Amino acid sequence: MWLEHQGQCLELGWLRAYKNQLLWSIEPEAIEFRFLHCVVASTWAFEAQGPGSIPGGGARIKRERDRSKLNRIGPGAQRGGELNQLDLAILLAAGEGKRMKSSRAKVLHEIAGRSLIAHVIRAVEPLAAKELRVVVGADKEDVIQHLSGVSPSAKTIYQEVRGGTGHAVKLALAGYNSSGTVLICAGDTPLLTSATLRELLKDHSSTGASATVLTTHMPDPSGYGRVLREANGDLAEIVEEKDATELQKQTSEINSGVYIFAATDLIAALGKISASNAQQEEYLTDVIGILKSEGKKVSAFETPDFTEILGINDRSQLSQAGFIMNARICDALMQSGVTITDPMSTWIDITSEIDIDVTIEPGSAIKGSTKIGRAAVIGPRTTLINCEVGAQARVFESHCESSKIGESAQVGPYTHLRSGTVLSEQVRVGSFVEIKNSTIGAGSKVPHLSYVGDASIGTQTNIGAATVIVNYDGVEKHQTVIGDHVRIGSDSMLVAPISIGDGAYTAAGSVITEDVPAGALGIGRARQSNILGWVLKKRKGSKSAEAAAKKEGSK
Questions:
Q1: Angle, vertex CA 158, rays to CA 153 and CA 159, nearest 5
Q2: Are 535 and 529 in contact (CB under 8 A)?
Q3: Which residue intervals of the chain bear CATH 2.160.10.10?
Q4: Is this model's pTM higher than 0.85 or not?
Q5: Residues assigned a catalytic role
Q6: Overall fold of domain 331-522
Q7: Dihedral, 215, 220, 224, 227 alpha carbons, nearest 10
Q8: DSSP state of 70
Q9: What is the pLDDT of residues 409-425, one digit of tens each?
Q10: Which of the residues 204, 352, 396, 516 has the least number of beta carbons within 10 Å of its own beta carbon?
């Protein structure tokens, strides 16, 4: 983060967060910093005090949270239908992503429940472009298939030879005859927000520029093209890092790779670029210099939040972007009325929906299309994947996937709910219980050490500890039906297919292989018999035999 004062830049520090620790590198020594508050990429504040800082004895930098920057969390997201100035959006997604060391295309890797390119598309969508074109390359079939689900109307263009960003845009504009406005973004910048794109488009329209470049100041600009300005502050040119001089590399203002162009000017300038550079590629950035040389107006719009333009090139950057996105999500949820006890250890997908007064305890992950009802309590150490949790339910220290948990139900600890599980209201499922593809009626309990698979259980029924529903015969799965107000004795084996009628009981330790009628007691065990003196005869010399002999002698 940088503070500019009287033409000088003071480095205030670079925030890095890993797991539950905040790591700070702060310079210069002359300034004393006091950490006030931090939610990465959405809210931070510092106070700088000491000699030579700011006239008046101190300075305060504060980035207020902008909830509109979160593209969507849950229902009711804002759309940008009032802004309809964009004719074409182009996403560049042809890169091989070699540093990811992955069998998947880079843009298909995910953070917060969405692919990288899906995040960019969701940021672009509110600008209501008339057409979206995506340049694909590596693993094109997979990318195209993914896009068909994310944005079915998008047109894909294949860049067979990686000839640079300028070459990619040339391909994307083939057959485009409109004189409108064109937005160009990279497909691997998932932190880009609709709010910033709206401001960029607004600035472009107000200045009447042929081109507007989104820029920002980076704490570490390594790897980015540098933005050079005239003495009066106007944009002079953009220089790729590999072509930049050592002096040019000293600037911290970088090119984000996000542009808005007047289509006719862009198409004309693209015809004049060449590959005479260190990379031997056609740079889109050269268009800026060409337009400048022709006397066209070129503008630069700076976003103060450098995290928005962070691209993903390796797994480390993927993790960092995920951390920042998660902080945005948690912050937005907390502002909307959700209690998150420890945001640093809580991970929530942007695709999940969480109602007010929900509490999420540390070490929890809310993933996929999970929906959590009002005043529910989740965690600690709980994972929910594509689940529905009713109001006032409690789920703690459990793993649940593709399951429905009713209102005021309680799940945990150490419960595993597998796909197809439906728990009605006020159900209790407890320690070391696994349930799969089963429905459990209101008020019923499966408290301890049990397995329930392919079953239907009625209301107010109790499943005793260590009960196993034997649903698989080695070839096929079979159904078990248990009625209302049933009592299954501890350590019972219910061998499916089987039915237990309303109000019936099974004796503890039973193996039930036949239907139990309503109101009956099912007993499936041999009568007990005791063989006296067996230990003394068969285990002579053992500690057990010695103990038994002592007992016999004391009589």
A1: 140
A2: no
A3: 331-522
A4: no
A5: 448
A6: UDP N-Acetylglucosamine Acyltransferase; domain 1 (2.160.10)
A7: 40
A8: S
A9: 999 999 999 999 999 99
A10: 396
